[in-house]
Amino acid sequence: MSDHNPLPPLEWDQEGVQIQGFSAGLYQIEWLLVTVVILYLVIMGLPSEGGLAVLAGTFVYFFFSLLASRLRFFGERQRWLLALHTWAMIGFITWFLYSTEGVTGPLASLYLLAVVTSALTLGVLVTMLEVAAIAACQLLLIHLLGTDILTTANLAPVGTSIIALVIVGYLTASLVHAIHVSNRTLLKMASRDSLTGLFNRRAFDDLVKPIHQMSRRSQRPYSVIAMDMDGLKCINDTEGHAAGDQAIRGLSQRLMECKRSSDVLARYGGDEFVMLLPETDAVGGKRMMERFLDVVKDDKLSISVGLAAYPEHGDSLEELLDHADSAMYFSKASGGNRVSVQAAGH
User: Fold this and answer.
1) pTM of the model as a whole
2) Alpha carbons 266 and 41: distance in angstroms, whole number
3) pLDDT of residue 148
4) Given strand 272-278, what is the order of strands in its sheet?
5) What is the C-alpha to C-alpha distance for residues 312 and 345, in angstroms, rounded to an integer?
6) Which has the least CB within 10 A, 43, 205, 213, 271?
7) pLDDT digit string, tens, across residues 261-285
């Protein structure tokens, strides 16, 4: 997040967080794998047969990871590229175990790196598929190394290793999913009004800023609407706050039904709502809100509406919101249930 926008996003982008947020961690895991392999070769020495090939293959894998990190493969959220890295990791580990005859030794735990990487980013299903592939690779290695697969001495360590991989992969993927669900819930609570489900003031301010900037660049109009229910205090006093809340929910539902998909609607607080209408001048905005008042009159809803338009009534969002608010209070003072437009130049 940049310093200019310290607030979290309005919607939790699970795929973006998983892939772009973890790409740096992926390379670090790959480089950790290479470091462990090189450390093993330094301590144990190169295999007597094909030692140079093992060393060369390790450096080729390292440069593959280094090149991927420089090219930023995950900028477009291409999950298949991330999956390719985990399969390449499994392939490299299998080849290294075969070259060092370490399939049933401690080096078999290197597969944990691939499983954890997949669990953190690709979910439970892909992770379990990779665990199955690892099991097949381990059995193949036992066969290629000329030993009998169907012996307790060979099956026991392989079986134990696979069970551990299943547990680690499943628990890690489940934990990551739970974290994403929690983050999605928290962000919804932070950006939505609890009574109506509409965006709150903070979310509205975040959403309309880029619309304002785009309109300034293209010199295209937009309208800002401020709305306030007439007589909500009377409803609360005579029928109770539950009835007042129901009236607010009813108005919000009507607004959702009447607004366009491009319009941004929010509950600003109390019985006040705001809306931004892109590509709409003052005349178009007034006509739209007058049609809305016609629609809701059957619901016995009385609403005072104020409108200000860019660039006619101001050059900044704050100025337009103030003007729309003033126009709304003018509607209320004039008897309510009407649309007032901020006078040009005021």
Assistant:
1) 0.56
2) 62
3) 67
4) 264-269, 272-278, 222-229, 303-310, 338-341
5) 8
6) 43
7) 899 999 988 889 999 999 999 999 9
Extents of the domains making up the chain: 14-190, 201-341
Residue type, 337: N
Enumerate residues 6+ apart whose C-beta is below 8 A from 140.
94
How many Å apart are CA 156 and CA 172, to the nearest integer? Answer: 24
Distance CA 22, CA 36 (A): 21
pLDDT in tens, 48-93: 777 888 888 888 888 888 777 666 554 445 667 778 888 989 999 9
> In this predicted model, which residue has the larger pLDDT, 201 or 5?
201
Which ranges of 45-78 would DSSP assign to H, the alpha helix? 51-71
Q: What is the mean pLDDT of residues 298-304?
A: 81
Contact 97, 58 (CB under 8 A): no
103-132 average pLDDT score: 83
Residue 259: closest CA among 238, 240, 244, 273:
273
Statement: 201-341 belongs to CATH 3.40.50.300? no
Q: What SS3 class is residue 111?
A: helix
- Give the burial class of 2: count Cβ atoms within 10 A of its Cβ; 0-12 exposed, 13-18 middle, 19 or more buried: exposed
Please state, rounded to an integer, the average pLDDT across all residues of the chain: 81
Q: Which residue has the higher pLDDT, 319 or 30?
A: 319
Q: Where are the beta strands (DSSP E) in the chain?
A: 222-229, 264-269, 272-278, 303-310, 338-341
Number of other CB atoms surrounding residue 318 within 10 Å: 9
Task: Please list the residues that pair with 303 across neighbouring strands.
Answer: 229
What is the C-alpha separation between 323 and 346, in angstroms, rounded?
8
For β-strands 338-341 and 303-310, DSSP reports them as: parallel
Query: Which residue matches tokens 């209070």?
Result: 329
3-state class (DSSP) for residue 315:
coil
Q: Which residue bears the tokens 């109506």?
A: 196
What residue type is 343 in one-letter code? A
Helix and strand tally (H, E) in the chain? 11, 5
**Paired tokens of 227:** 């709305």
Least confident of 13-17, 42-46, 327-331: 13-17
